[in-house]
Amino acid sequence: MLKKYLTLFFLATLSAHAQQITQEQAQDAFRNADFISELNYTEGDPLYADLSKGKKGDIIIRGRELYKIMGHDGVVTQRYGSLYLDAGAWSPKEIKKAKEAAIKAYREGTPFEIIIEQYYPGDGKEMAKFETLAATMIPAITKALDAHKAGDIFAVEAGDDTYVIVKNGEPFKKKAVQVLYMTY
Questions:
Q1: pLDDT values of the chain reduced to their tens digit, one per residue, 184 residues
Q2: What are the E-state strand segments in 6-152?
Q3: Under a CB-based contact definition with an 8 Å cutoff, are residues 78 and 134 in contact?
Q4: Stated pTM of the model
Q5: Contact in structure between 84 and 141 (CB atoms under 8 Å)
Q6: How crowded is residue 128: how many other Cβ atoms within 10 Å of its Cβ?
């Protein structure tokens, strides 16, 4: 326990003096850390190019950020569009009406991006074309996407909230590097 506190004190001292830590100090930091994030950086992410060069177990130091390479497995990515109907902001009656209107409009040929714009001006393009790591998604949405084919529109209820979803394509595997991340 004392070693843990001494390591953390040492890192805080280095940080205060803006000094770079050594690989050994970084390894100690990971061994003694109370909080470490597990992250995936995928192809196209600005850090992917640097992090993907590391081997499993390598620690990459970027300023005050530490990345420990855990693997280079691909991650499953889902492609979909989502209209979020917030139960905290909308009544159940309003949600039902919006859900039915969105599904009807899409089935009649209105692009999903345009439908979203009616509810969230300026966000339609982004919200209509998500690419999200399957492991980070709301389980009810993942399950529903797995049960539908590309082009389908459907509603998903997750807790009190409702999502109108359009499946834009089949899941695919994206190159990724898995890391443990911490700052000091």
A1: 544 444 444 444 444 445 688 989 998 888 888 888 999 999 888 999 999 999 999 999 999 999 999 999 888 899 999 999 999 999 999 999 999 999 999 999 999 999 999 988 888 888 889 888 888 889 999 999 999 999 999 999 998 899 999 999 999 999 999 999 999 8
A2: 37-42, 59-62, 65-71, 75-85, 130-133
A3: yes
A4: 0.67
A5: no
A6: 20
Token duo for residue 145: 């996407």
Residue 105: which of 115, 116, 119 has the closest Cα?
Answer: 115
Rounded CA separation 144/13 (Å): 50
CA terminus-to-terminus distance, the chain: 18
d(CA 99, CA 75): 31
Candidates 87, 25, 101; CA nearest to 59 is 25
Q: Please give the order of strands across the beta sheet that includes 130-133.
A: 130-133, 75-85, 161-174, 153-158
